[in-house]
Amino acid sequence: MAYYYPEPSRTFSEYLLVPGYTPEGCVPANVSLKTPLVKYKKGQEECPISLNIPMVSAIMQSVSDDTMAIALAKEGGMSFIYGSQSVEEEAAMVSRVKNYKAGFVVSDSNVTPESTLADVLALVQERGHNTIAVTDDASPNGKLLGIVTSRDYRVSRMNPTDKVKDFMTSRDKLITAGEKTTLKEANDIIWDHKLNALPIVDKSGRLMYFVFRKDYSAHKENPLELLDSNKRYMVGAGINTRDYEERVPALVEAGADVLCIDSSEGYSCWQAKTLQFIREKYGDKVKVGAGNVVDRDGFLFLAKAGADFVKVGIGGGSICITREQKGIGRGQATAVIEVAKARDEYFKETGIYVPICSDGGIVHDYHMTLALAMGADFLMMGRYFARFDESPTTKLNINGTYVKEYWGEGSNRARNWQRYDLGGKSSLAFEEGVDSYVTYAGSLHDNVAKSLYKVKSTMCNCGFITIPDMQANAKMTVVSSTSIVEGGYHDVMLRSTGSKG
What we know:
Number of helices: 15
CATH class of the largest domain: Alpha Beta
Strand order of the largest sheet: 5-6-14-15-16-17-19-20
Structural class: alpha/beta
Low-confidence stretches: none
Mean pLDDT: 90
CATH architecture of the largest domain: Alpha-Beta Barrel
Radius of gyration: 26 Å
Shape: globular
Helix content: 25-40%
């Protein structure tokens, strides 16, 4: 007969952390959220790739493009570029992230010497800044002939038809730097010569970037940036179990730091075949995660097949309807707890630590702390990131409320049938996701900082300043339906917004 689990599967909302002793020095400023992203062997000094914050963005059209990847890498996390697009388009997104240099800005305002003051003023109005490059062909990477700033002209004393060549600061009067200049060296030059902008040029005199004085402080605001050995932002990319022989080489060539098989259910021969292909072609040089699974058997299968990390969660996403469509899945908390236990046992037996990623089920910020305490090494989130300026979707005003579009990969809008591959026909037979809106929340930087401060604060309440310490020593309690109600405001009448008192 069928096997029945003796206990019901539970969600994060059914648990609370029990506070512990908080010693001196256990304060949010001292908490480290650094966590392993890929597997490593016992005795290694450091994991090959670690995250500085335990957050990655979901492999979704409505969440993870190159803009999101850069923004999240600045905070210390990683985005996985969505794979439900052409191989060429996905590789191009990865390439844009890897070629983006923090602090090095490609010029977006360019004119030729024959352009006019009117052209300059139009660019200032359009772009909102006053540093304009003068190149031989008005391109961002043309031969640099000079620059124009607000100090080079006075509208009241000049004619709109005046030529740029007559009032620009010419190249021979500019301080520039070569193409191998580091950001630190560029900033030193800016401060030594009291510049507002430093042009970076190649050996042929062609403009590559500007480094701005104002960006120095912005760079300092991101001390947790996730960078590779060449000081480039790190980025992940989604793959599927259909076209991996073509997609994987293209993404590796584009510079993807980590790959992840994007699937609603990962305990399958197709994932094993995909992992086998990558291991035979690249060995352990290419890092790849797999999933999703919800139990011990699924984890062990993927770990033994060669996964660098394993994603946990089926049906817990806010836009996912897999459970009601198929009747498969498991409460996210229970799934994480069981898989984490299997992960620890596998580490003890083999000496190989395979990180697990909790994917789905995060509704409130405190759920993040619970997931980490239950054993998740990092969290993959979709709805959370879809709300921000940096997500690729449209911001709309619906009945006076700003929202952003958010749809599942299993929806008819995404039509990502490869994610639900069962070796059958090449189409989406039925929906496993919905098309929806999420309330707009502003910038990623501000929201991530607030959420992670809550995580750190909770950890301190429990007496921990590292994630491994919390995972080893946290105390948790199941809560009743009544205590869940008690946990929110109750037996009071809320004041209306804007009331005085």
